[in-house]
């Protein structure tokens, strides 16, 4: 495997100066409109030529139309690159070239981005100032951990195959039943812990772990990236980048009506495909979109927003019927990921981004949305185009 020497810089990109009145934030879609006008003629999937592109129809298929919204979301943008402070730590691991990337997906805890690296130590950053919180790190790094999550709204971690919860400024071993060991959590409420697996074009599965019965229910989802509840129903968003890309929105009214998974089969391939293909319950509604990738969905100011990847651009949009309306250009470029995870907190949303060609299944970036700002943090070097 090739090894690279990265020269790391830290930079900020912002449309306004910090401290400016949030009401003065504005967004421009000029670069998005220009990009589609210059490129759409070469996209035969859209069936358009350059002179048909306009703000009301940037990209059209038989299933959907992409346009620029007349009601944009006003968000300041900040982009920062942060290096791994443990780069020189010696790690006896065949994956050593990826040690600069978190070993598990970062989480938000009490206004802090908490990231865990291969040496078992945490790195913490205040999400308002984006400054490193070394004092909190010292408190957390009294043990070495293999993975971490938010469990029942508390910071939890795996150390020596035991789950610990951060309580009263110290780690406390717990006997809590938690189904995960080496993978991120998609969603949690009073009833379920939701997680997934992804095998690319061979399929994927979403699992609902019942906290009371400890049974695990599953259905097909290739590959789930966001879960939220609306009117008591579970909404699952999934995407796959294979070929032209696909997205899937599945509405599950009652996960307990799905098929029960055998524990020994979870995260396994079955007959050449993912386990989820054997769910016969059909107790859900489903919407499929072809030729577009929806990386994430979350609520912001009472609006359901989506991070969309299309035509080598990544942007923020709303979906109304078959109309995909761009509400913010984010960074006017492409931010690509394979198996992202979206987690909504009280005041913020965190989107963890991986990129297989950069660090396999490790987190290479995070996006934080909240307080009139969208922050993109890249580990070690700038990853977007």
Describe this structure in words.
5% of the residues lie in helices and 42% in strands. By secondary structure, it is mostly beta strands. A hairpin with a 3-residue loop joins strand 11 (187-188) and strand 12. The model is unreliable at 1-20 (pLDDT under 50).
How are the SSEs placed, and which strands pair?
Elements: H1 30-39, E1 59-60, E2 65-68, E3 76-82, E4 104-109, E5 112-116, E6 122-126, H2 134-140, E7 147-151, E8 154-159, E9 162-167, E10 170-173, E11 187-188, E12 192-198, E13 204-210, E14 216-220, E15 224-230, E16 233-240, E17 246-252, E18 259-260, E19 269-270, E20 273-274, E21 284-290, E22 293-300, E23 303-310, E24 313-320, E25 323-328, E26 341-344, E27 349-354, H3 356-359, E28 363-370, E29 373-379
Parallel strand pairs: 2-25, 3-29
Antiparallel strand pairs: 1-2, 4-5, 5-6, 7-8, 8-9, 9-10, 11-12, 12-13, 13-14, 14-18, 15-16, 16-17, 17-21, 19-20, 22-23, 23-24, 24-25, 26-27, 27-28, 28-29
